[in-house]
User: Which sequence fits this backbone?
């Protein structure tokens, strides 16, 4: 039986989760990282396949990965040579999805004082993805190429568990599909086997609440917008 306090704690961990884009440099204890990942591994997966693999990056290797990706990101000729292995977003955008995408982008840029004409500023902000937004821990997630769509759905539940378990410990995260463009650099630096493909990255650490970008609170549709109760 779940108590009211336990219910409220779970709800708070879920509803307080946000994509944090500026972190303090404070280290995260190895024990906390292990506990978060162990808890997250209770995510359901079809026939208990548990398709997730995680690379936890700190210190020199995280810095090296960031430096190599950033070097490619800020060189237009090199950046064009790097393409995602899978389509995260649709090739043709329709409403309401494109409207939500534009709103969160421009809301963030407005907080940062970036205008549509400031292409360099927007590129610099996007580049902060590859430094894990200054977080002390970077996570890279991979999956075996033989796994199909069902396992990718399972993977999403695992990622959500990580973010909720982190919140339960006073930590914050930002899931980052931006890393998929540079999967070849990631594979080289982390020495990934050819059988694995990069799913995404994630920044993890303590939020810097003095940074204006962390005040962004995205909107959610009311239940009436996406739920039908049938009886």
Assistant:
């Amino acid at each position: 039986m779940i108590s009211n306090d336990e219910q409220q704690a779970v709800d708070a961990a879920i509803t307080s989760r946000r994509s944090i884009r500026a972190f303090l440099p404070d280290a995260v204890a190895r024990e906390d990282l292990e506990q978060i990942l162990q808890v997250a591994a209770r995510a359901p997966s079809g026939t208990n396949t548990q398709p997730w693999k995680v690379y936890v990056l700190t210190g020199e290797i995280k810095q090296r990965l960031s430096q190599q990706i950033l070097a490619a990101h800020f060189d237009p000729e090199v950046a064009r040579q790097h393409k995602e292995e899978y389509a995260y977003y649709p090739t043709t955008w329709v409403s309401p999805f494109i409207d939500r995408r534009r709103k969160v982008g421009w809301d963030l840029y407005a907080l940062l004082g970036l205008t549509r004409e400031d292409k360099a500023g927007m590129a610099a902000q996007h580049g902060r993805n590859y430094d894990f937004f200054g977080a002390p821990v970077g996570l890279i997630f991979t999956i075996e190429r033989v796994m199909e769509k069902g396992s990718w759905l399972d993977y999403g539940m695992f990622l959500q568990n990580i973010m909720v378990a982190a919140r339960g410990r006073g930590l914050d995260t930002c899931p980052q599909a931006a890393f998929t463009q540079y999967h070849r650099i990631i594979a080289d630096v982390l020495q990934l086997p050819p059988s694995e493909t990069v799913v995404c990255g994630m920044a993890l650490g303590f939020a810097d609440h003095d940074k204006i970008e962390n005040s962004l609170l995205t909107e959610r549709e009311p239940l009436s917008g996406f739920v039908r109760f049938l009886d």
